[in-house]
Amino acid sequence: MTKPLTLYLAAPRGFCAGVDRAIKIVEMAIEKWGAPVYVRHEIVHNKYVVDDLREKGAVFVEELDECPEDRPVIFSAHGVPKSVPAAAVAREMVFVDATCPLVSKVHIEAARHAENGLQMIMIGHAGHPETIGTMGQLPEGEVLLVETVEDVATIEVRDAERLAFVTQTTLSVDDTADIVAALHTRFPAIVGPHKEDICYATTNRQEAVKAMAPKCEAMLVVGAPNSSNSKRLVEVGSRAGCAYSQLVQRAEDIDWRALGDITTVGITAGASAPEVLINEVVDAFRARFDVTVEQVVTAEENVEFKVPRVLREPA
Q: Cβ(179)–Cβ(123) under 8 Å?
């Protein structure tokens, strides 16, 4: 006889509107211009999604130099430095920008502050494509990166009275609050966004995990190891009281021995993980346990972002 197990499913989970739009952009570009369509960097950080688009005719590259001039190129949802579209224009390439509108909003914010003569501080993760893209909106040295509260104590600014900050959209809400507080303490005149830059989807998924974690002996986050928002969900789960909080790309990555004799498991997914992978994980539990599924709903999402006009027009 199989043991009973309660699976708590976080809602919202998985795809956000920006990811949905980015995937649609690649699919519509292939439909409009035929294969191959080039994509600079993984369109979103999920192997399953990238492999699926590759099969449909997308070619993923890391730099624009790897793209031929006669094929369309798409910029990933994470955003790109200003120099990238400028290079595409110089080469007379057809390009479509799939940058998430919420990331574009941060780019516009950074440019506006720079126009007002303010030096920027970005709260983000070094090397993450979104951070590279946002910092690349302004000339070298105009954006200083801080990753931790400790970094705030050591950064050297041009003028403490003329500063502003922006944030990577996929960070932990709690971590960011501590860094923002440290910035305000050290630089009382610093200007911040009207509403925090962390996107609605990141916030909603983290809130759902906080609500679910105390009920669970273990929590699995379906997502990719290079997905910032997925890794943050694991951290949020641990902090919210779930002793075993792990990232899995697919059902085959579940460490059944580590789960042992548990009776409650929470499942969520990063913003770039498709529902099909979540279902795969649920099915893997159903194959081993007598499963009862309970949804933990903390928000309803109905956000939708339009695809660029160039894709809505006939070829």
A: yes
